[in-house]
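Table S2 (continued). Query chain:
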Amino acid sequence: MVLQCAMIGLDPKEIPGKRPASKLLDMRLRAEKNRLKIEHSIIDGLRPVLERMLRDNADIRSIIPGVIRQVRDAKGLPTIRITVPTTNGWKGIALSAGARQELFISTAAGKDELAAMIKAALDNG
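Corresponding output:
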């Protein structure tokens, strides 16, 4: 759109009803009521699980997927393992489709309670 505006000599900021590019980017990077941050790629099959977790559990403030690394032992359906506590929740590792991905889960829930939430989201798929 910016290119089209430049071609006809208009400033895209002056077009009524259009959002600035920064607003569009903000909207694209968040999902499930602004609680799942989609800044990086998400490994195959994991996004629906994360969205179910957020939909079914109000205790989870947000989930931020992190770095993806290739591994040999990540085959089949997605699995999520909770690893260590963080300042505002837990760090987890998701395995699926030959890759592992870090997950930063912001919640006040304990490890066992979070494990139950994860199991429910994986089982309901």
